[in-house]
Amino acid sequence: MHQPTKRVIDILEYIVKKGENVRLTDFSRELEMPKSTLLAILKTLCDYKFLVNENGMYSAGTALFSLGAAFTGNFPTLNFVRKQLDDLVGLLGETCYFGVLEEGNVLYLEKADSLHPLRMLITTGRRLPAYSTGIGKALLIDCSEDELKKIYPDGLLPFTKNTITDFKVLASQLECAKNDGYVWEIEESMEHIRCFAVPVRKNSRVVAAVSVAIPVFRFNEEKRDFIIDSVKNVAQKISETIEQTDAHFGNIF
Amino acid sequence: MHQPTKRVIDILEYIVKKGENVRLTDFSRELEMPKSTLLAILKTLCDYKFLVNENGMYSAGTALFSLGAAFTGNFPTLNFVRKQLDDLVGLLGETCYFGVLEEGNVLYLEKADSLHPLRMLITTGRRLPAYSTGIGKALLIDCSEDELKKIYPDGLLPFTKNTITDFKVLASQLECAKNDGYVWEIEESMEHIRCFAVPVRKNSRVVAAVSVAIPVFRFNEEKRDFIIDSVKNVAQKISETIEQTDAHFGNIF
DNA sequence: AAACTGTGTTCGCATATACGAACGAAACGG
DNA sequence: CCGTTTCGTTCGTATATGCGAACACAGTTT
């Protein structure tokens, strides 16, 4: 591990987590780096707009935006995905997500916000353990029990009282889901939220997934079929589009 | 200037420019760094998903997406802006932009694509000299000739035969535009493209701008008033929204 | 007004990093 | 098929970077 590089990474990830108004001392304390060393790195990052220094307060700079935008720009498919998610929200009224699997985690690539004031709070770019989320289970849908154990060598940690922590239970549930063509989840990653998700395939391999997250009190069984059909429909459209591209997305697709 | 940090920056900016399939030797040649040093840095960047290494070919990694998304997430106003631009494209049919001023350059923060197959190619996150673009002139609209000279100490370089290279001409044109409340531009930054732009203000200070870019052959004078009114209307709505927030956007707003 | 907290410098010393050459492997071309 | 080129990797040494302490300065609190 290259220390100077690691430090730059730590600084950047820390500043985007905090967003703004981070002081030199905060960096030093949280990242355990001497202030004199920090100052040299921070100054250079400011020169190139990765950070902004406003009388002692550091904030995330526009270069971070440019990097992310340039990355996204390589994947025009995402524009199509966003429009599909917008349509899906129009139908269902609840927050919808699109994400890919990255080493056992869901990486959220796109979302469309619920029309309701009370809505989910996951932001694009975040990573969450796949086994506990609806969209994540859709991404793992083809995994056997052995494969799951390999992905999560430290076991399945609970996030709520409903989180599945037993590999056998998870594997058998995925087995069923594979037949049904969709996954559901009730308060396994967050209290009061249930979820439906459908995998997106390219050449029959799961490469991404679409999901909708619904507060339990706004759900009722009558809506069930309509929700599942709507999500399946969007996942199918996205699958067809992705089939035609050769985009890798950081070699995830 | 801190060399290791500068190198990380150079590597990241180079990889997003190239997008994918960059070899160790390419980095070494283009960035003038010894291969042995590069290897240590690249390996660390791969560990943290800033890069991906696929049998010798490096590509941009998902961490870049996460950084950019986290940055954007701090500015919910951008979602509103995107919807406004979408509406504007619905009215005008041509590519629309939203951007801010950063040291004499326009930084494009949002865009909505034209419905026509032939359209502008500027992507979000890019920077272009403000004096030559429509949106950029809207951002400079309150500047005097002296202020312009301070921003561009090396003078105004031409990009097309129409680019304004004389400070006096630019300043007097901005003076007129300030009265009209909008800026126009004909093939000053790109051949075959003309542009209308309107500044977005916060507390009466220009903090951003909205523009529409139209291929010259699709423009005719009858549309003029409608275009200008539409852009002004959107800029006004965005102004009102920004007034209510205290977002800085990398201390640009 | 003095004590405290935090930023940004400076400086000498110890050390981790950078460098370039040399090596091995693979791809290319005649 | 073998020489040639290109690429990635390794390694010992030189050097640039990292470190911690001390200091000046500014703002805030006691």
Structure description:
The structure is a homodimer of 253-residue chains. Chain A has 253 residues and is of the alpha+beta class. The first copy, chain A, has 2 domains: 3-66, Arc Repressor Mutant, subunit A (Orthogonal Bundle), CATH 1.10.10; 75-250, GAF domain (Beta-Lactamase). Helices cover 45% and strands 21% of the residues of chain A. Chain A is built from 9 helices and 9 strands. In chain A, the strands form 2 sheets. A 6-stranded antiparallel beta sheet of chain A has the order 6-5-4-9-8-7. In chain A, β2 (51-54) and β3 form a beta hairpin. In chain A, α5 runs antiparallel to α9 (224-244). Chain A is globular, with a radius of gyration of 20 Å. Chains A and B meet through α1, α3 and α4 of A and α1, α3 and α4 of B. Chain A binds a DNA duplex (30 and 30 nucleotides) through residues 2-4, 23-25, 33-37, 39-40, 55-56.
